[in-house]
Write a structure and sequence with these properties.
There is one protein chain. By secondary structure, this protein is mainly β. It has five domains: 1-114, Immunoglobulin-like (Sandwich), CATH 2.60.40; 124-211, Sandwich (Immunoglobulin-like), CATH 2.60.40.10; 236-313; 322-389, Immunoglobulin-like (Sandwich), CATH 2.60.40; 395-481, Sandwich (Immunoglobulin-like), CATH 2.60.40. Helices cover 0% and strands 44% of the residues. It has strands at 41-42, 51-56, 66-72, 76-77, 88-96, 102-104, 109-111, 124-126, 131-134, 140-142, 150-156, 165-171, 175-176, 187-196, 199-200, 207-211, 221-223, 228-230, 241-245, 251-254, 261-267, 273-277, 281-284, 288-300, 303-318, 322-331, 334-342, 347-351, 363-367, 372-378, 384-389, 401-402, 426-432, 438-442, 452-453, 456-457, 461-469, 474-481. Strands 9, 11, 12, 14, 15 and 16 form a six-stranded mixed beta sheet that branches. Strands 2, 3, 5, 6 and 7 form a five-stranded antiparallel beta sheet that branches. A five-stranded mixed beta sheet has the order 19-25-24-21-22, with no helix packed on it. It is elongated and about 110 Å long. The N and C termini lie far apart (93 Å).
Length: 483
Amino acid sequence: MKKLTLSILFICHVVWVTGQTCPNVTNPANGSLSVPVNTTISWPPVPGIVGYLVSLGTSPGSGDILNRRSAGLTNSYTPEVGLPENTTIYVTISLFLFNGQLIICTSESFTTEDVTTPPPCTSLVEPVDNQGNVSVKTEVRWAYAPTATGYRLSIGTSAGATDLLNNLDVGNVLTYNPAGDFPQDSPIFVTITPYNENGDAGSCTEESFTTGNAVVDCNAYFDAISGEIIPRKPETNFPSQIGLCKNEIPTRIGSDDTADGFRWFKINEDGTESLLSSTSEVSLSEVGSYRYEAYNFIDQGGETFECGISKDFNVVLSEIAQITSVSTSQEVDGRQIKIEVSGLGDYEYALDNIEGPYQDRAAFNGLSEGTHTIYVKDKNGCGITERIIERELSPDDFPKFFTPNGDGINDFWQYIAPRESNEIKLTFIQVFDRYGMLLAQIMPTSQGWDGTFNGQPLPASSYWFKARDNLNNEIQGFFALKR
């Protein structure tokens, strides 16, 4: 029997909040063996939280099977397509708090049963068997068959027929969305055959439903008078992901679509939906899966119908970026700036213009020596962070020569602070001869070097300098002493 190691993990976060304590899994108990693959994982309720997040993975703490799936405030979770057989399962449960903090709890495990028989048959959930007047655009859904690892589907317009779909292996899913519409006003016969590595369920009962007539065309039409294409359904660019901004919970979001009506739904773990709002705005306080609808009213044949669009979207925890460090370097093609940030969000970066353009790469190359401003924007809409990057110390900030001849003109050699930056502060300046001998160390606030060593004038020649600023940047260059 082929074995696979998966994980359900509870890892303890180092920050604890008074009143919220991580629960222990009560079913299955820690260390349990031969647990049914269709088991429900449950734990005691925790008061004072926004919700639970559940992850399944192939190693402790990972989420490659199920990554932080929201369970809402329900203190249990049943995997929709079951758990793998003969496997040590690890789960990660996290507590989502009102202040946006996430507590990740300690690890427990159990081992599932070794399945040695084929799965049982299943039945339609939507449409149900013998249902009438079903939409031609319906999606076929069925119940999970315990121990199944996949399903084959046949659909026809008569009993036993497969003219619409012939024994298609749809994999380990519980829905099938046809590429086109079902025939109108027609019986539809469906056979679902679950299987696993031990075989299939055998001869399963065929079920059926009957489609209705399409009574309204929601497609756009050509207006011969205006010569324009007139849409019947609203148009939308609503995103597939929304950020629930940390420390701004609940968050109110809205749609700017032009439509006659709106609906917002929370998609529950069992596939059902809960209506949250029937206006253009909705208040969200939980991460998870949601659905948005916008529709127009269409009058046809003396009746009013809805022509609408639907968009599934995810709500994720996000926050404005914190710029942790900015490093600069001088490259062949100019100055380079690299930015490092922290935070829960998904970030993009712009230079010198808050309007963009923005890029995913946290670095900019080939820049001039002047002052720059970087902008870090959360893609989920939680805000923009900015930081000014001052001009760096440059050899051009020091005179190329001086003439210490006592005429009161250019008698001292000293750093010249650039006008475009008030932030550069020097910590030391050292002067060397061409052989590397230290001749003088001068303070940036002094008059500068007078061209002497031990009180004796030095000859006209080239001299080197080294300087360091308050940002610990160190540069060197040379200048000329002329007599």
